[in-house]
Design a protein that fits this description.
alpha+beta, 5 strands
Length: 121
């Protein structure tokens, strides 16, 4: 059973036919949101074409909401696919993480920092 199935509907910020959005319980930054599939599938590669299309719309809605409340300077959009990619909950979810000027000394390389030493090139 997925821990995401225990999230009360009143915690949803918004939803579609395929996904719901919540505030991340352990946010990386102010405004960090999660897009979670209603259907329990392991990762992005298990989503069907309709879900993949809807995911794009949901990410855009997240950005619109975050922009209105937090005015970030950038974004990271992240999906961990598999245990060895760092996935800890085996139910699809996408992180929409707002980034702010100065939140990291040198953000160059962005998501490349997921492998130590590979962020700077």
């Amino acid at each position: 059973m997925s821990i995401f199935k225990n999230i009360p509907i009143n915690n949803y910020l918004f939803e579609s036919d395929y996904f719901f959005v919540i505030k991340d319980k352990f946010p990386v930054s102010n405004g960090h949101l999660l897009v979670i599939s209603k259907r329990v599938v392991i990762d992005y590669f298990s989503l069907n074409p309709q879900e993949k299309n809807d995911l794009i719309i949901m990410i855009d809605k997240c950005k619109f909401q975050i922009d209105g409340k937090h005015e970030p300077d950038g974004y990271n959009i992240g999906m961990n696919c598999g245990k060895y990619a760092g996935q800890s909950v085996m139910h699809f979810h996408c992180h929409v993480i707002p980034r702010y000027r100065g939140d990291m000394k040198n953000p160059l390389g962005g998501v490349r920092h997921c492998i130590e030493g590979m962020g700077y090139y």
